[in-house]
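Sequence in, structure out. Go.
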Amino acid sequence: KKFWLESSCDGHRLSDQTFHLVHLVCCTPFSTMSSAGGQRPPANRMTLQTFKGRLGGAQKGFRLLKKKRDALKARFQALLKDIVDAKLQVGSGLKDAAFSLAKAHWANSGDDITSTVVERAKRPSILCKLVAENVAGVSIPVFKMSHDPTKDTSAQTLGVAHGGAVINACRETYFKAVTQLVRLASLQTAFKTLDEEIKMTSRRVNALEYVLIPRIEDTIAYITQEMDEQSREEFFRVKKVVEKKKAKLAREKAEAEKAATASGKPTGEAIDAPSMFDGKKDSDLIF
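Output:
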């Protein structure tokens, strides 16, 4: 129970609908659904309806979490190709940037221009912002790079005497390399986040499929079996009561007949009483 609540309440990692479904199922004490060694719930219709509702919620939550896991896996597979391409581009970009820096040093009469560039870089012209991208209810961090060319004015006058074109080309090459590095960092961060989320969602799906849902189904089967047994016992009890009542009535009737025979009294058969009509024909009436 503690694991489920901590996992489900982990910020934005689970959508509200899925959270409520999982929370409904997971807040049920395990002892009431245990198939062995635990306390069985009372077998009545109210309990049966309660567990049927929990079973429906668990199955719906299982389907939602499974769809979420499939969506995350699809995005995870798409990221793999992008990461491979980004790594190749970063490798070639850094190689070209190092070669262009060597050419800039050569064009500047072999002097190291690194200290000069650092001195003139007063304000950063490239900034990275961290934004969130929603994928199946999971916020994936994405790095967005913004470039302000107005802050590069101090570096544009570098190498005016000689080698200015080569230095500008070196700056452009490094700018492309930094762009690829930021993209690679964003993909790697998203890859790691998706990997952790897929593992956590898989644990939830497996727990619902192999632990909670079978446990609830076992409890429902137990309650149904107990209710059927109770109905059979009630039917048998009513049947025995009716049989005993019939036997008691038959015994009382036999005793009453025996007592009437012993006293010479009629036993309840119809007595032939004299008729009010003597059988003669009435005289005709003349008006």
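Check: Residues 1-15, 29-37 have pLDDT under 50 and may be disordered. Helices lie at 2-8, 16-26, 45-107, 114-120, 153-156, 164-263.
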